[in-house]
Write a structure and sequence with these properties.
Blueprint: H1 6-15, H2 18-23, E1 29-31, E2 34-37, E3 49-52, E4 57-60, E5 66-67, H3 69-77, H4 81-92, H5 104-128, H6 134-142, H7 147-152, E6 156-158, H8 163-167, H9 173-179, E7 182-185, E8 188-191, E9 196-202, E10 208-215, E11 223-225, E12 238-239, H10 241-251, E13 254-256, H11 260-268, E14 274-277, H12 284-293, E15 297-302, H13 305-318, E16 328-333, H14 339-345, H15 347-356, E17 359-360, H16 361-372, H17 378-392, H18 398-416, H19 434-446, H20 448-453, H21 455-460, H22 476-507, H23 514-535
Helix pairs in contact: 3-4, 5-9, 14-15, 17-18, 22-23
Length: 538
């Protein structure tokens, strides 16, 4: 059977989570590292159908059914291979490629690219320990890299002269050009990387697909990466992922830092689950790759303004991938430092504290909104609410989206509108009894829309609504009826107090008229009528 281009199929598997695909048909529950449910291919009452998100396959221990997202769609939707690919491509938002087999010549060509990259890596490694690479070796050792680290990450040195273009003369120029190692100039071929500390970039299987070169003479940019090639796409490549995969599985999370040196130092100091994007901002593809291994992610950025913006962008990108069992957090390194510097000056304990104190996604977004919108004004609050609404709509789990929306509405009432307490009328109101306090706390915590509607009145009570209250099992009508009733009763109490004061004043010779007293009595009667109607209101 003819196959689609392997790169396209691999990208489908990368973008789509098998848990999401299977979960459309099979209710799944996470137990340990895998998800379990009742097999859709045979009748069973006890779940024996396992789905491994990181590995991308399902297996039934009852009937032996086994496969990936493609076979699952084929078998459950009764589709042929091309139709299944088409349906999955629609889910991933990818354009279908031409339907054609991959030729043996094409396979051999791609293999030749890997061979070129491997050969170049060895040349760079060798040169690092020769006289020509002395400055590069001193630099990398000065950054705290041991020979063990240099060997593990295969760090090397690209000399000032054209090493690749002059030494790889036995290779076709078109093949060399396709790897991004050389370019064609006016006077012939020349190396893309010269006088650079070289960090190989590996694919998920540990093969070298590109390089990141660090400037050694102070020139800018400090880092240059291989341009996109047939082997390498920056938007889909995560530095250090080949080393981190097992640790991400063991630690039940990944840590994302901003640069490759930070990632290496973190991995070598006990944070083996650390990775970094490459020469580009974090992308949806990066998140998709990480979420297939684990949906628990801690982003670690600089604490400056740029780091905060990067974190906000990461939060926006990660929201569509969040599930109810995800744990996404944001850690910040302050004082102009990065993880590499923290590890050198404060040690592993300091870095652990930064990671352990990371802020959960919900709290990070809330804090970011409060720092970037003027929520003390109606206009600022409106802008902030619109921003949160837009971001939360990205969450595909609608139940989770609803729960977070309710949490934010509660915070909006308790924090954004708390400033109104100081503007509350200075009227002597009756004390609020414990039952009423508990009832109001229940309403505020369970009906944030109603609480926001009556925010002025509730703020005037000076009651803390943070405490939990017994579940009364009310619906929104019963909740609103209670608040309206309480509001009317308290208003009646103030009128009765005013009537009593003025009647006593008249006895003492103060200048009050019968018309004023009649007006107050009329208002009290109107309130009593409203309360009586409210009593019988369904």
């Amino acid at each position: 059977m003819a196959k689609f281009d392997n790169n396209f199929v691999d990208e489908l598997r990368m973008r789509l989570s098998i848990v999401d695909i299977v979960g459309r048909r099979v209710p799944l529950v996470k137990k340990g590292q895998n998800y379990w449910g009742c097999c859709p291919f045979h009748n069973e009452k006890t779940p024996s159908f396992s789905v491994a998100e990181e590995k991308g396959f399902y297996h039934c221990f009852g009937c032996g059914a086994h496969g990936d997202i493609i076979s699952f769609v084929m078998n459950t939707e009764h589709l042929e291979y091309p139709a299944a690919i088409r349906e999955l491509a629609d889910m991933a938002g990818m354009k279908m490629p031409e339907y054609k087999p991959k030729s043996p010549e094409r396979v051999r060509l791609e293999d030749s690219y890997f061979e070129i990259m491997e050969r170049a890596t060895k040349e760079y490694q060798k040169l690092l320990f020769e006289p020509a690479g002395r400055d590069a070796l001193n630099y990398v050792r000065g950054r705290g890299f041991t020979d063990e680290m240099i060997k593990k990450y295969r760090i090397g040195y690209a000399p000032k002269n054209n090493l690749i273009s002059s030494k790889f003369v036995d290779i076709k120029q078109t093949n060399l050009l396709a790897t991004g190692l050389v370019r064609r100039g006016e006077y012939g071929m020349y190396d893309f990387f010269r006088h650079k500390l070289m960090f190989p970039i590996f694919n998920a299987h540990g093969k070298v697909i590109a390089f990141s070169g660090r400037s050694l003479d102070g020139s800018e940019p400090k880092y240059i990466n291989t341009t996109d090639t047939e082997l390498f796409h920056k938007r889909q490549t995560i530095f250090g992922f080949n080393f981190a995969r097992d640790e991400i599985y063991k630690k039940n999370r990944s840590i994302v830092v901003e640069g490759q040196i930070d990632a290496i130092q973190m991995q070598m100091h006990g944070f083996g689950e650390t990775v970094a994007p490459l020469g580009t901002a974090l992308t949806e593809d990066h998140i998709a790759i990480l979420c297939k291994s684990n949906r628990n992610i801690t982003f670690c950025f600089d604490g400056d303004n740029a780091g905060q913006k990067a974190a906000a962008r990461a939060a926006s990108i990660v929201l569509p991938f969040v599930r109810d069992n995800s744990d996404v957090r944001f850690a910040f390194v302050t004082g102009g430092k990065d993880p590499d510097e923290v590890l050198k000056t404060g040690g592993v304990a300091a870095m652990h504290k930064i990671i352990d104190d990371a802020t959960p996604l919900i709290d990070f977004l809330w804090n970011w909104v409060n720092q970037n919108f003027l929520v003390s004004t109606p206009g600022g609050r409106a802008q902030a609410e619109k921003f949160l609404d837009t971001e939360l709509k990205k969450i595909t789990d609608k139940k989770l989206q609803y729960e977070i929306e309710q949490e934010y509405k509660k915070r909006e009432f308790q924090q954004w509108r708390s400033w109104k307490k100081s503007d509350a009328p200075k009227i002597k109101l009756p004390d609020t009894d414990l039952v009423t306090k508990n009832t109001l706390a229940y309403i505020v915590n369970n009906f944030p829309d109603i609480a926001s509607q009556y925010a002025d009145f509730l703020s005037s009570l000076n009651i803390s609504f943070d405490e939990t209250a017994p579940d009364l099992g009310w619906d929104d009508k019963a909740a609103e009826k209670f608040i309206v009733s309480l509001k009317l009763q308290r208003y009646r109490a103030t009128l009765e107090q005013e009537l009593k004061t003025k009647m006593q004043g008249m006895i003492n010779g103060e200048n009050y008229t019968n018309e004023e007293l009649s007006d107050i009595k009329k208002k009290i009667a109107e309130i009593n009528e409203k309360l009586e109607k409210l009593l019988y209101l369904e």
